[in-house]
Every structure is written in structure tokens, then in C-alpha cells.
């Protein structure tokens, strides 16, 4: 059963809700936190909760990374390392030697 997206960025979700929303296992959520790949939870007594706003920020950042990766996949090979501005050829010789 899909989990509805909270409207309040301060809504608190437990590990089970986060896992269901992301479509992953609760253990995977905890492992991602341990590796620094997912926002750390708030500790309230002996429980852990995630703010919906932090999860939403994480998902937006993940979308941006995926967009960048897709853009690099479309870039012809050999052009990845150039730093020339658009419309200008990259040169192997520096016109302004130091």
C-alpha cells in the first residue's frame, strides 16, 4: 500500500514509513544513514524519526544527481574533460601561458 506524501515538512516519519515511501527495506534505511547516504533521524527518547522536509530535500538532491548523470551519458565521449564555454572549442594549448 503506497504511503501518502505528507504536506507538512515537519511531519515525523518512523523507519517503517520512510522505507515504505522509498520502496526499500527498513534495514537499508538504517545502513544508508550509517554510511552518510541518507539524512540522520531525530532521536526522541528511544525512538528515531525523520522529518518529511529532510527526506524531500534528499529526494530533490537525488533527482538532480540523476539528471546530471543522464546529461553526461548523452555527452559524446572525449568531451567530458573539456572546460571550454559553450560555442567555443577547447584547446590543448593555453593562449595565456603563465
Please give a handful of descriptors for the protein shown.
41% helix; alpha+beta; three-stranded antiparallel beta sheet; Multidrug-efflux Transporter Regulator, Chain: A, Domain 2; 3 strands; single chain; 98 residues
Describe this structure in words.
The chain has a domain of 63 residues: Multidrug-efflux Transporter Regulator, Chain: A, Domain 2, CATH 1.10.1660. It is built from three helices and three strands, in the order βααββα. A three-stranded antiparallel beta sheet has the order 1-3-2. A hairpin with a 2-residue loop joins strand 2 and strand 3. 8% of the residues are buried.
How would you summarize this macromolecular structure in one to three sentences?
This protein is of the alpha+beta class. Helices cover about 40% and strands about 10% of the residues.
Would you spell out the secondary-structure blueprint of this structure?
Layout: E1 12-13, H1 15-22, H2 26-34, E2 42-44, E3 47-51, H3 52-74
Antiparallel strand pairs: 1-3, 2-3
Helix pairs in contact: 1-2
Amino acid at each position: 500500500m503506497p504511503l501518502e506524501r505528507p504536506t507538512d515538512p515537519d511531519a515525523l516519519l518512523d523507519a517503517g514509513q520512510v522505507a515504505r515511501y522509498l520502496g526499500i527495506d527498513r534495514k537499508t534505511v538504517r545502513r544508508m544513514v550509517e554510511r552518510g547516504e541518507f539524512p540522520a533521524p531525530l532521536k526522541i527518547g528511544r525512538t528515531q524519526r525523520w522529518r518529511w522536509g529532510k527526506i524531500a530535500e534528499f529526494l530533490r538532491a537525488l533527482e538532480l544527481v540523476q539528471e546530471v548523470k543522464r546529461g553526461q551519458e548523452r555527452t559524446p565521449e572525449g568531451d567530458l574533460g573539456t572546460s571550454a564555454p559553450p560555442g567555443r572549442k577547447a584547446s590543448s594549448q593555453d593562449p595565456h601561458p603563465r
